[in-house]
Write a structure and sequence with these properties.
globular, mainly alpha, 5 helices, 103 residues
Length: 103
């Protein structure tokens, strides 16, 4: 896993919709600070779909790995438009970056 590569992937594929810094505003997608260990659909101040709120996923390495492959398949009804990271290595790199940047 490479957090450095994950940061590059996040910047080009995720940052247009998400922020990671504590106190940063939501964009089209929610701020991801404090993501690990949080239940899906619970970031205060963000208008989640019922699908995200009702899914009840606790975000960790495994759930993010599965989700980031195909978000719409993992949570049918999500408004996340991103098609996913098809390569396992890319998903692992983004997760490594998120572990560092959202803690």
């Amino acid at each position: 896993m490479s957090a450095v590569n994950g940061a590059k992937l996040f910047k080009t594929r995720c940052a247009q919709c998400h922020t990671v810094e504590a106190g940063a505003p939501h964009k089209v997608g929610p701020n991801l600070h404090g993501l690990f260990g949080r239940k899906s659909g619970t970031q205060p101040g963000y208008a989640y779909t019922a699908a995200n709120q009702n899914r009840g996923v606790i975000w960790d390495d495994k759930t993010l790995f599965d989700y980031l492959e195909n978000p719409k398949k993992y949570i049918p009804g999500t408004k996340m438009a991103f098609a996913g990271f098809k390569k396992a290595g890319d998903r692992n790199d983004v997760i490594a970056y998120l572990k560092e940047s959202t803690a």
